[in-house]
Design brief:
Layout: E1 2-6, E2 9-13, H1 21-28, E3 47-50, E4 53-56, E5 69-71, H2 81-88, H3 98-111, H4 117-124, H5 134-148
Parallel strand pairs: 1-5
Antiparallel strand pairs: 1-2, 3-4, 3-5
Helix pairs in contact: 2-5
């Protein structure tokens, strides 16, 4: 039995500590907002926050996060500036990558509340979007930054 804190709630999970965190979140906690993309930590679709920093849940194990605070897309309030900006800038098209994009953006604004556009592009670079909504993502982050800073 491993103890896990996700979105402020403590869970006891009866799985091996080397199980990928992505599958613990989706299959055992039934928090399905975090998506499976590549399984190799390349695409960013499965991005979550661990102690406030963006990380790829497909590359972490349950044991890696024991005693740490994990936040999934479900843990970001609906009224959060990033989520509101995403809607206002009409970022989603297919929407599959959006939970990971939003989590990466939340981490970005926690680290740098008023980022310049080159910094945004660099920070978000490893989160892939097949629909190509990158300009909208940048605008949404700039919009959200106005509320965060």
């Amino acid at each position: 039995m491993v103890s896990l804190k996700v979105n402020g709630k403590v869970y006891q999970v009866d799985v091996e500590s080397d199980m990928p965190l992505l599958w613990v979140i989706r299959d055992h906690l039934k928090l399905t907002g975090t998506k499976f993309g590549c399984g190799m930590g390349i695409c960013g679709t499965c991005t979550i926050l661990v102690d406030g920093d963006a990380d790829r849940s497909c590359q972490l194990t349950l044991g890696d996060v024991e005693g740490r605070e994990v936040t999934t897309i479900e843990g970001i309030p609906e009224g959060h500036p990033v989520k509101r900006a995403w809607i206002e800038e009409q970022v989603p098209q297919c929407g599959y990558c959006q939970p990971g994009q939003i989590m990466q953006a939340v981490a970005l604004l926690r680290q740098r509340p008023n980022p310049e556009e080159p910094y945004i592009k660099d920070f978000m670079n490893d989160n892939l979007c097949r629909c190509g909504t990158y300009p909208r993502i940048v605008r949404a982050i700039q919009r959200a930054a106005k509320e965060v800073s």
